[in-house]
């Protein structure tokens, strides 16, 4: 299985194996060089010392006399000493034996040429591994004989082999140890990820109660915390969506019920009853407008969610859409008993905006103010400019019921409806905020329960006579 755990374990295992092999190789090289180098150094030191002491005497003697002299004065320790002629034939051995032996090893060849060299390998006659050095005996200008010092390295081989086996065992133990550690570490890493995956699958199956367990404060712990926050937010949004569906179903059903009821009433009623006819048509017209407003909110929400809402911006005086909207909605003063007071800018306030979308925002804000302001209250709409003259401020303030402090951060969220007892889609302020931000503006809400609400739209002022291209 190509799982994360498997990849982690293999990664650590390959890394540790590589490190162990490299370090083990270096250690093996060091101990091999040390032990074999020590053996060669010992033989070489003995040969050089003997040459310095006995070369002059040996050079003046005949071959058979050299053999006697060697046996009498030069044999010592466990080093094998052999006297060879210039052709590599053994003339005398330190054991006093004369055998028909001929050497052609590298150290002997070098000595034949007047040089000194060390050789290590299997002795072709004694069948054991040795290290040997052959030195030439000079008589003025030519070599008269060769002295070959050799020592068995079987003990060194055994020691090096034992150390190499120990090194291999320790290396294998280290690899197995780190294999266990990597399995444990991979399990610690993978376990919370698997729990997250399991929780996500439960969520995909519709169980939104699952939560990931935060086991640490590292990145995975933060991922679990973020996942849980996401689940809470999704639950919240799912609840808002369900509430919205329930609410919009009710909001759509109410005007349809009224329209259907009055349609049947007028159909079955007395055509001559003008009062009933007038009331019924008025209610049908009112409910139709209400139904149309809900559908428009849904369409606008769909466009904003899809990012497909287009602005047909132009250079305009902000006073104009505010004045038109105030005149359009001013008739509701007599119906609601709420005063609508409008204060326009003293001079044109030029902004680069979509007049229809801007008017939609103003209608929505004033409509909300009428909806939540009781009879005898006041709605004030005003236009002003910031001191730096870079932004226009459109303010809609009412003396209505206000908004609870805990609801203020959420009233511009899609589907959110504060507990006011009033109907609606829950999309009005969300759409207003989105349209304002599409105009590079900001919307700010200040409210206090029982004291009223102030909503301020901040838009950048255009200082040009025409929009920049």
UniProtKB/TrEMBL annotation:
Reactions catalysed according to its record: ATP + protein L-histidine = ADP + protein N-phospho-L-histidine
CDD domains: HAMP, HATPase, HisKA
Boundaries of every Histidine kinase domain copy: 247-463
EC number: 2.7.13.3
Keywords: ATP-binding, Cell membrane, Kinase, Membrane, Nucleotide-binding, Phosphoprotein, Transferase, Transmembrane, Transmembrane helix, Two-component regulatory system
Top class in the EC scheme: transferase
Subcellular location: Cell membrane
Lyase keyword on record: no
Domain HAMP: 187-239
Membrane-topology descriptor: Multi-pass membrane protein
UniProt name for this protein: histidine kinase
């Amino acid at each position: 299985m190509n799982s994360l755990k498997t990849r982690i374990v293999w990664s650590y295992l390959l890394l540790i194996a590589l490190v162990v092999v490299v370090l083990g190789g270096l250690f093996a090289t060091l101990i091999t060089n040390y032990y074999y180098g020590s053996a060669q150094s010992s033989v070489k030191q003995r040969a050089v010392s003997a040459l310095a002491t006995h070369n002059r005497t040996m050079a003046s003697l005949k071959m058979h006399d050299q053999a006697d002299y060697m046996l009498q004065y030069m044999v010592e320790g466990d080093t094998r000493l052999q006297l060879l002629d210039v052709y590599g034939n053994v003339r005398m051995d330190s054991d006093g034996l004369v055998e028909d032996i001929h050497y052609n090893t590298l150290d002997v060849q070098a000595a034949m040429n007047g040089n000194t060299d060390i050789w290590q390998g299997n002795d072709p006659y004694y069948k054991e591994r040795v290290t040997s050095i052959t030195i030439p005996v000079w008589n003025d200008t030519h070599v008269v004989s060769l002295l070959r010092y050799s020592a068995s390295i079987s003990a060194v081989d055994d020691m090096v082999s034992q150390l190499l086996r120990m090194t291999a065992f320790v290396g294998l133990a280290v690899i197995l140890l780190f294999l266990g550690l990597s399995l444990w570490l991979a399990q610690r890493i993978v376990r919370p990820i698997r729990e997250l995956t399991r929780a996500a699958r439960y969520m995909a199956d519709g169980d939104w109660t699952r939560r990931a367990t935060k086991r640490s404060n590292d990145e995975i712990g933060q991922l679990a915390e973020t996942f849980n926050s996401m689940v809470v937010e999704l639950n919240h949004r799912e609840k808002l969506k369900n509430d919205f569906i329930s609410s919009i179903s009710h909001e759509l059903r109410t005007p349809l019920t009224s329209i259907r009821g009055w349609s049947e009433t007028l159909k079955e009623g007395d055509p001559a009853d003008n009062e009933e006819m007038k009331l019924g048509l008025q209610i049908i017209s009112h409910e139709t407008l209400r139904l149309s407003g809900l559908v428009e909110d849904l369409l606008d929400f769909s466009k904003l969610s899809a990012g497909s809402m287009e602005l047909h911006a132009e250079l305009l005086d902000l006073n104009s859409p505010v004045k038109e909207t105030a005149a359009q909605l001013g008739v509701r003063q007599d119906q609601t008993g709420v005063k609508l007071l409008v204060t326009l800018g003293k001079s044109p306030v030029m902004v680069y905006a979509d007049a229809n979308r801007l008017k939609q925002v103003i209608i929505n804000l004033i409509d909300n103010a009428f909806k939540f302001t009781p009879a005898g209250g006041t709605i004030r709409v005003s236009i002003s400019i910031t001191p730096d003259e870079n932004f226009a401020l459109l303010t809609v303030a009412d003396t209505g019921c206000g908004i609870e402090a805990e609801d203020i951060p959420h009233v511009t969220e899609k589907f959110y409806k504060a507990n006011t007892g009033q109907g609606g889609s829950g999309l009005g302020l969300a759409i207003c905020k989105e349209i304002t931000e599409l105009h590079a503006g900001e919307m700010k809400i200040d409210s206090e329960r029982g004291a009223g609400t102030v909503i301020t739209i901040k838009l950048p002022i255009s200082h040009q006579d025409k929009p920049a291209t």
